[in-house]
Amino acid sequence: MVLINENYNKLEETYLFTRIAKKRAAYAEAHPEAEIISMGIGDVTLPLCPAVITAMQQAVQEMADAATFRGYGPEQGYTFLKDAIREYDYRAYGIELADDEIFVSDGSKSDTGNIGDIFSVANVVAIPDPVYPVYIDTNTMAGREIKLLPANEANGFCPQPPEWHADIVYLCSPNNPTGSVLSRAALEEWVAYARREGALILFDAAYKAFITDPDVPHSIYEIPGAMECAIEFSSFSKTAGFTGTRCAFTVVPKVLKGRDSEGREFSLNAMWNRRHITKFNGVPYIVQKGAAAVYTDEGRQQIAEALDYYRANARLIKQTFDELGFTSFGGDNSPYIWLKAPNNMTSWEFFDLMLEELNIIGTPGVGFGNQGEGYFRLTAFGSHENTAIAMQRMREYFSTK
Amino acid sequence: MVLINENYNKLEETYLFTRIAKKRAAYAEAHPEAEIISMGIGDVTLPLCPAVITAMQQAVQEMADAATFRGYGPEQGYTFLKDAIREYDYRAYGIELADDEIFVSDGSKSDTGNIGDIFSVANVVAIPDPVYPVYIDTNTMAGREIKLLPANEANGFCPQPPEWHADIVYLCSPNNPTGSVLSRAALEEWVAYARREGALILFDAAYKAFITDPDVPHSIYEIPGAMECAIEFSSFSKTAGFTGTRCAFTVVPKVLKGRDSEGREFSLNAMWNRRHITKFNGVPYIVQKGAAAVYTDEGRQQIAEALDYYRANARLIKQTFDELGFTSFGGDNSPYIWLKAPNNMTSWEFFDLMLEELNIIGTPGVGFGNQGEGYFRLTAFGSHENTAIAMQRMREYFSTK
Q1: Which of A90, A352, B259, B297 could lock onto A1 through a cystine, CB 3.0 to 4.6 A?
Q2: Residue extent(s) of CATH 3.90.1150.10 domains in chain A
Q3: Is residue A15 over pLDDT 80?
Q4: Judging by beta carbons within 10 Å of its beta carbon (0-12, 13-18, 19+), is residue B30 exposed, middle or buried?
Q5: Cβ–Cβ below 8 Å for B260 and A200
Q6: CB distance A60–B63 less than 8 Å?
Q7: Chain A within 8 Å of B118 (Cβ-Cβ)?
């Protein structure tokens, strides 16, 4: 009988979102009249913008005609998309990238997991707590040693460079789940740590489109020296509502190096390229045309409106919490608000209260790690109407408590 | 400095298709008047069929409206697509699968590589020679021991169960690159081997749509006992022209088991499910709607016409080779024809002759493995016109030799 990868037995049994879904389904069945408002899953609700829709319709038409039909494309992505990324996501912030430093993929979830393929399992990985579960799970599957970087109220939910050595560090900013952002100064400290320790930063910038604070960089490569110590992951999911359309990109600078056990150096860009062209066959042409449309004048205008729509929800949520005297984080550079549960409730106690008393679904912070105990994540991705109703329910319930 | 995965250094340096592209580009530059006909890369040339186009246009429209917009879908794929797969790809052949035994993905290239994640690196893997390079490369990246199963003229390019033990066996039928198919009897022998040895068969059925011989099964699960020893990979790439649209599915029966080093048994379906939901976020909604349209009455009719178009090319190629007295394989249940190079030429000698004398690009068999030396792969995916011109050039050149 085939031998399994035994690391899978070390994974957490129960899924956070599966457990939430079960509790929700049970409540809905017992209370069919309840109007449950979902602020839990980090999924967008606005449709794709018109510029993207038009581009994809044209692309579908091209696929109907042999003269314009596209079969296999370059696995790393079409140049028409990579050129736009280089221009608007990097050159606009003073960063010059080569075409072959960008790798288009179907998602940062895939990339932040698959990047591990090119690294030895002997590397020690530093991962924040609380955190997006994929970083922990994929390194557990690989069998790497994980050391946690606590993010908590004391450090404003911004993990600090540790005293100890790590070979690989995951950072996510703007952060999922806490909504906190690493300032320019904080990122400079992290780059300094990485250069000092010879560590590689895996920087998840999936939420960068929500940045409003001018002191928050839009790419880790705005920090001098970061090209030599960081890989950056970006996604169209939250920027342009592509959660069900699937497009992302990873930047691996050509100066970035790794070593073998004898100290010989190797290009991580060449290794990621090899992984990418061997285990992946590219993002659909239609989807890449849609993603490229995000960078046109109309596209940029339209997604800015969508982002402002969600930001308005975030402001309302944050404002409501401030008025209620709650402690909360995020919401200003992020679609997530990280609430300290009132009255010292645990995350799940607060989840149950919110579901049963207010018919609102959020995500218990402890599901993202031990440092999340006592916290609760709400998202700004719903409609204005539902967000307003949810906040009104909270005002009415908690003002009297 | 981060430690790399040193297995990457064991990979072959030069890419088969990169080398071909370079030679082609050099020739084209030196002979700009040459009308080069490409029969090398296994890429389709007919556009997506009308039923698929219509379905995708409707799906794009749905994504434009908040009421019908789709965000994150189930990572394993939408039930509307899995239901069609169960009905037309399995029930039609007497095979009953559960919904959760099917995993929709972006490609068999991804799946045949990523499946390795759930297995120990200690497994010995049997891989045919010649073969689609991904099986070799992905197992080399993982660090597994690979033992080759020779496919050659003596066995009609159908690898036979070996005398020795393997934990995992890759089989591809109809075969890339040789176009050979494993008959029902041959598959029964392989299933018997797997059951006897406790081996797991990874069965790549990407080309099953080209089967015409009624004695060739359309799924390995037509063989009794195969559910307990095989995972099957299928793809829309060649069936429906989705090489640039990206959709596939993998079946992992729930009875399939693996073990740990202590002999405890684990469900491979549960493990693949865990890998899939942790490292992947689903195929685009638009693409899944297109794939589902392949199974409608119109879709099935239209893809049958496209497949017949390519089959006509394959017949012409095979017929031409027969008339010229060449030895060739494939072409009757496959879009590939595997030609023994005349006059004992090596694969690359024949490649150069075909490019320089006839302006035809094919793929040197040695690029797929040592057993491919002296052979040459041609594809039936071109236009009728180009295929006819190419065959005429071959008749004129080789009839006089």
Answers
A1: B259
A2: 6-47+299-398
A3: no
A4: exposed
A5: no
A6: no
A7: yes
Q: What is the 3-state secondary structure (H, E, C) of chain B?
A: CCEECHHHHHCCCCCHHHHHHHHHHHHHHHCCCCCCEECCCCCCCCCCCHHHHHHHHHHHHHCCCCCCCCCCCCCCCCHHHHHHHHHHHHHHHCCCCCHHHEEEECCHHHHHHHHHHHECCCCEEEEEECCCHHHHHHHHHHCCEEEEEECCHHHCCCCCCCCCCCCEEEEECCCCCCCCCCCHHHHHHHHHHHHHHCCEEEEECCCHHHCCCCCCCCCHHHCCCHHHCEEEEEEHHHHHCCCCCCCEEEECCCCCEEECCCCCEEEHHHHHHHHHHHHCCCCCHHHHHHHHHCCCHHHHHHHHHHHHHHHHHHHHHHHHHHHCCCCEEECCCCCEEEEECHHHCCHHHHHHHHHHHHCEECEEHHHHCHHHCCEEEEECCCCHHHHHHHHHHHHHHHHCC
Residue ranges matching CATH 3.40.640.10 in chain B: 50-297
Looking at CATH, the fold of the domain delimited by B50-297 is given as Aspartate Aminotransferase; domain 2 (3.40.640)
Interface test with B, best of A4, A44, A54, A117 (most B CBs within 10 A): A4
A218 contact partners, CB below 8 Å, separation of at least 6: A89, A93, A205, A208, A211
Tens of pLDDT, residue by residue over A288-319, are 999 999 999 999 999 999 999 999 999 999 99
Which of A123, A141, A244 is closest, CB to CB, to B284? A244
Interchain pair B106, A107: CB under 8 A: no
Mean pLDDT of chain A: 96
Mean pLDDT of chain B: 96
**What architecture is the B6-47+299-398 domain classified under in CATH?**
Alpha-Beta Complex (3.90)
Here the ipTM equals: 0.96
Torsion angle, alpha carbons of A372, A376, A377, A379, to 10: 180
